[in-house]
Amino acid sequence: MKSATIAISKEIENNRIEMIDFYNEATEDYKFWSNDFNMHFGYFIPFKNNPLKRDSMLNEMNNHVLKRLNLTNKKSTLLDLGCGMGGSMRFALKKHKNLSAFGVTLSDFQVKKGNELLKGYNGTILKENYNNTSFTSNTFDAALCIESLCHSGHSSNSLKEAFRILKPNGKLVIADAFLKKEASKLSLSSNYVYKKLCNHWSLEKLETINNMVVKLKKQGFSKVEVEDASFRVAPSVLHVPFAITGFIIKQLFSTRSLKRESLHNLKGSFYALISGLHMKSFGYYIISCTK
Predict the structure, then answer these.
(1) How confident is residue 251, by pLDDT bands cut at 50, 70 and 90?
(2) Exposure check for the chain: N or C terminus, fewer CB within 10 A?
(3) What is d(CA 195, CA 172) in angstroms, rounded to the nearest whole number?
(4) Cα–Cα distance for residue pair 50/62, rounded to 1 Å
(5) pLDDT (average), residues 235-243
């Protein structure tokens, strides 16, 4: 039992190191995906967003998440757990003038470049683990996690830390991909896609949506609401093959070879697209809850 625990801990640590290396080296590639460095998929609303304009959908995801946080014009504080380059933070700060925001990431590159992009805004990115931050308890009015908690396997530790740093009645919104059934019950093809996705994007695992709701309630969160946003996200996912092709052509014409991390990122994006074809196994959900 002890050796098994050590093996699991070592695997988690290796995944954390791979994830940091991945984002240190591949984050700059996301400029090709989003002019605003939104490192996530988008949210499509018919007659509001143009499905051919990717950044419009990516920023709509930011907007949709913010609406669920119920931020007002009063002074408030926001924490982005796994903030990337701070794209969602910048969107929030532009929209809410009395908002102050912090983001945490383990990537040195994201801290440096993200804070450069935040100049002139009331926001700061810190190099910290979202499972164990330095913030005092009951600090933030709201917290968001857009496609970030998957890197820790949607673990209970992540939810425990989010609960700790939120003020009473503070809101948490999670937007991410989840399994619809236990990994052990996936079909052979779905399991293959799942393993490839986790490997190339350095994901510890994906939790099932049902287990995630149970974890949130067990942690103490109330008013847990779940939106299946799979079809809303699909139009932006369909941009993946065109973005991959364009990025490779650009790299070839610039005479720069593809970095290992960039190749992993491209392959991960491809398997994210393929996972969308396995509707019985994978889904994209937006979860909101209250402390």
Answers:
(1) confident
(2) N
(3) 28
(4) 16
(5) 92
Domain segments of the chain as ranges: 2-290
Please report the pLDDT score of residue 283 as a whole number. 98
Measure the CA–CA gap between 62 and 41, rounded to whole angstroms: 10
- Whether the per-residue pLDDT at 243 is higher than 90: the answer is no
- Tell me the C-alpha to C-alpha distance, in Å, between residue 64 and each of 70, 149, 197, 206: 10, 18, 25, 22
Q: Does position 249 have pLDDT exceeding 90, yes or no?
A: no
Beta strand spans in 128-281 (E): 140-146, 166-179, 222-228
Closest C-alpha to 235, from 68, 56, 36, 38: 56
Question: Where does the chain show beta strands of DSSP type E?
Answer: 76-81, 99-105, 123-127, 140-146, 166-179, 222-228, 282-290
Task: Determine the Cα–Cα distance for residues 104 and 256; give it in Å rounded to an integer.
Answer: 31
User: 286 near 173, Cβ under 8 Å?
Assistant: yes
Cut 0.85: pTM above it: yes
The H or E element spanning position 259 is: none
242 in Cβ contact with 200 (< 8 Å)? no
Check whether 3 has a pLDDT greater than 60.
Answer: no
Mean pLDDT value across the chain: 90
Nearest to 32 by CA among 271, 274, 269, 272: 269
Q: Hey, what amino acid is at 153?
A: G
CB 200 within 8 A of CB 265: yes
> Class assignment of domain 2-290?
alpha beta
Confidence at residue 30, expressed as pLDDT on a 0 to 100 scale: 73
